Amino acid sequence: MATAEPKTQTGQLETWQGDVEALRGLVSERAMTGETMLLNMGPHHPSTHGVLRLLLELDGEEIVTCLPDVGFLHTGIEKNIEAKTYEKAVTLTDRMDYLSPMSNNMAFCLAVEKLVDLDVPERAQVIRVMCLELARVASHLVWLGTHALDMGAMSVFLYAFREREKILEMFESISGQRMMGSYIRPGGVWRDLTPDFLPSVERFLSEFPAIIGDYEALLTKNPIWLDRTQGIGVIEPEEALDLGMSGPSLRGSGVNWDIRKAMPYSGYEQYEFTVPLGEHGDVYDRFLIRIQEMRESLKIIRQAIDRLPDGPFRSNNRKFVPPPRSELGQSMEAVIHHFKLWTEGFSAPDEEVYVSIESPRGEIGCYLHGTGGNKPRRVHFKTPSFMHISALGKICQQYLIADVVAIIGSVDIVLGDCDR
Amino acid sequence: MGVSSKLGNLGVVTTTLEEAVNWGRTGAMWPLLFGLACCAIEMMSTQASHYDMSRFGMELNRASPRQADLIIVAGRVTRKMAPVIRQLYDQMPHPKWVVSMGDCASCGGVYNNYAIVQGVDEIIPVDVYVAGCPPRPEQLIHGIMTLHEKVRGERITDWAN
After folding, report:
1. Percent helix / strand / coil, chain A, rounded to 5
2. Residue B93 belongs to what domain range?
3. Spatial distance between the Cα atoms of A415 and A389, rounded to a whole number of angstroms
């Protein structure tokens, strides 16, 4: 047993207890007199999907106000990127939305490519699409497992993670890491596909549709599931747009907005897929949409495999992309490029760009401002989880305390994505 | 187990109190259901079907610190979260253990900046550090096995402290 005393002492945890006056204007007047109850939920709570803290004002079991408190995972990633060259910053973007690191890589790399006007070969674009869609499936599987777990269905979690392992193994085979691969780099991808990657994707494509059927058999018509999700957390389309929601949570309200269709990147306009839309905007519709999205992702992966061309997997522009290692022993120029890129990095103009992509959670936007030197002046990410957490206060109103858990699960938040 | 069974043929096992208690403690060490960042996802993978941490007596993650024996600090510890972790640790009943999972929890990882506590050992005493960003489930399991080894080596005289 460890007996060492902690090196630093931390102060008492601040609580809202006894400090109601500080909340005047944020909660209803009834809380001031003690007519309604203030309840703290989180930051350590099994169903807040990370370190989210909610202050709930309750009238009996009914939510009067729901105030989210974020920042428990604020890591300073954006500030750290300002001290890194563009190549090195990619590894930091992995760790924001840690359920789909590929999407973060993609948003950042697209911004860098737009800033320095770098070409991406066709093969790299197709590989990127394949990885992004695999990441979408993997992310939705975590969402499905934890969402069901929050509502008391333990077995779905075990099934969902079983399939997710297969995708992680594919990522490991191409990038060397299960989760934080930093596989997508400015100018293409880190290295070419490994020989065992495509066969394992093929195997996954043939097995997975039946497995989605299994998930649906567990939940879609399950009366308990229906009771807990239908008519809960309803959000109207206009409201959802006003709150800045995006992705499946927005499409659950029937708004047809998918960046892959609206502002295609990486050749998404060449793929055939449908964007599933909900009708009621409740938790159940958002659930159905994500299930359907997994099927659509499989279609996209299928098409990507079919169209995968031969050729280079990253740009041949040696000012921005390191040369292949095989050249280092033969070409002095390659050695110089390699050395320059891995020590100084490349320079980007003093301009600003904004790029957004469709991550599994919604719109990830990357604002990037160069300095003319090798490091960015400012990087900012517009992340879907932040928008969805700010929308929670609106969505949770008038529902019961048990529904809060269902609603948090249905908007699919990741606190690393929100706080960065 | 290390139990000497001199009277085994009579169906009697002799051991010391120390060994029996330590064996029991390793066999059902329930972790706190507590995740911070990326490592928490790998911790979930470790508990899920493929790696199945319940093989090591961790069937159940308790959401309440009052019912937990072990806290796996999985992820980066921010300055805002640090008091919360300390409070959770204080709320856990003895005996309690701490596994620091991943580089961020162990030493701050790549984030040497204003927001991140440079290692959770600045706040709570750590028994086992698991390296990696994030560590593979096998690495976490190895960390747990290392902790079990440590627990099996504990002396009765230490329990009083």
Report:
1. 50, 10, 40
2. 21-153
3. 9
CATH number at residue B27: 3.40.50.12280
For A77-419, CATH number out of 3.90.1680.10, 3.30.470.30, 1.20.1090.10, 1.10.645.10 equals 1.10.645.10
Distance CA A351, CA B87 (A): 46
Strands B97-101, B70-74: pairing kind: parallel
Cα A360 from Cα A384, distance rounded (Å): 9
Task: Report the residue from B42, B49, B159 with minimal CB separation from A179.
Answer: B42
Q: Name the residue among A1, A158, A180 with its Cβ closest to that of B49.
A: A158
Chain A environment of B37 (Cβ under 8 Å): 50, 73, 75, 95, 98, 415-416
Neighbour-count burial for A228-257, b at 16+ CB within 10 Å, e otherwise: bbeebbbbebeebeebbbbbbbbbbbebeb
Mark the ranges of chain A whose per-residue pLDDT is less than 50: 1-16
**CA of A165: which chain B residue's CA is closest?**
B50
Closest residue in B to A14 (Cα) is B83
For chain A, which residues make up each domain, given as ranges?
77-419
Count: domains in chain B: 1
3-state secondary structure at position A54: strand
B117 inside domain: yes
Residue A204 · residue A170 · CB < 8 Å:
yes
* pLDDT tens digits for range A79-91: 999 999 998 899 9
Check B37 against A416: CB less than 8 A apart: yes
Say what angle helices A197-219 and A283-307 make with each other, to 10 degrees.
Answer: 160
Backbone φ and ψ for A329, nearest 5 degrees, come out as -80, -10
Q: Give pLDDT, residue A20.
A: 72
For residue A60, the model assigns a pLDDT of 86
Q: Name the packing angle between helices A401-411 and A283-307 (round to 10°).
A: 20
Site of tokens 């939510």:
A63
Work out the pLDDT band at B7, boundaries 50, 70, 90.
low
Structural domain contains residue B138: yes
Q: In the prediction, which pLDDT does A324 show?
A: 86
For all residues of chain B together, what is the average pLDDT?
A: 86
Cα distances (Å, whole numbers) of residue A138 to A5, A359, B65, B75, B145: 41, 12, 30, 20, 29
pLDDT band at B60 (very low <50, low <70, confident <90, very high): confident
Residues in chain B with CB shorter than 8 Å from the CB of A80 are 110-111, 113
CA–CA separation, A364 vs A259, rounded Å?
Answer: 10
Inspect the interface and report whether the beta carbons of A44 and B42 lie closer than 8 Å: no
